[in-house]
Amino acid sequence: MPDGHVSEFADLAEQFQKHRTRLKKMVQLRIDRRLSARVDPSDVLQDTWLDCERRFAEYVADPPMPFFHWLRFLTAQRLVDLHRKHLGATMRSAGAEVSLYSGPLPAASSVSLAEHLMGRLTSVSHAAHRAEIQIRIQEALNSMDAVDREVLTLRHFEMLTNEETAIALGLKKAAASNRYVRALKRMKEILDEFPGLQE
Fold it and tell me: Whose C-alpha in 9, 35, 174, 182 is 20 to 30 A from the C-alpha of 152?
């Protein structure tokens, strides 16, 4: 399917399963930390699958975007609904930290990204020291350009291709690629400060 669309209902389950790992990573990165202990990402994806089945005919009739991006859109809607339902007025304000995304889905916070990096840090066991390192990583991530951070999130953490990232952010492919290279360089500088963090 070179155009990135799925036209047959028979393909639907297979294609959803193909993208499931990346969608799950998206949920893990972007779900509010206050919900992560109560909401299983697999449950979010199950609801997304039901939405996908229900709305597939509408999608096929007039595909507004490539299929994978449509799945991300449906998953994002589920995340937003979850945040509104469980957090309501206590949702993190847009100005609480550097926003990573201007579209209709929760941002992957520096806390979430730092935790994913810290998950690979096995050489530091003392809780206080780990907390100090995590705060320093968060500060370094927050110092990055917001769009660069989002490109990094999409490419490095959510495993999107450069073309998919460009579509998601409305960038030209060359611009998305350049921003990713710049973001990787900055992340390497961050990781070099902590030799136990290996990607």
Answer: 35
Could you give the CA distance from residue 117 to residue 114 in angstroms, rounded to a whole number? Answer: 5
Q: How many domains does the chain have?
A: 2
* Same domain membership, residue 140 and residue 84: no
| Pairwise pLDDT comparison (111 vs 43), residue with the higher score | 43
Cα–Cα distance list, 30 to 27, 33, 44, 77, 116 (Å): 5, 9, 12, 12, 12
CB 30 within 8 A of CB 113: no
Q: 186 and 127, same structural domain?
A: yes
Note whether 56 and 124 are same-domain residues.
Answer: no
- Domain of 119 in residue numbering reads as 110-192
pLDDT tens across 74-130, in order? Answer: 999 998 888 888 777 454 443 333 333 344 456 677 778 877 777 655 555 566 677
Model pLDDT, residue 140: 80
pTM: 0.74
